[in-house]
Write a structure and sequence with these properties.
This protein is 84% helix and 0% strand. By secondary structure, it is mainly α. It has one domain. It contains 4 helices and no strands. It starts with a helix and ends with a helix.
Length: 76
Amino acid sequence: MLKLYALPSLYRQGNFARASLYETDIAALMYAYRPDMDGLLKGLAGYVAASDLAKLQNIVAEIRSRTGRFRRQECD
């Protein structure tokens, strides 16, 4: 949750390297443990601006898409 919370700030700072690391960590956790990302985003809603929450929802959707491709390849 903290890595999600930090992402919008890292993007605003232009800290691509750190944002990329955080996204990779989030992707690995999503792939391995399948956490309730919608619940995590709802938990963050009270602490981030609406625009940042929308960006986080997009990031999570992109990561879901990437991890989904890996899961489909495992089934093949």
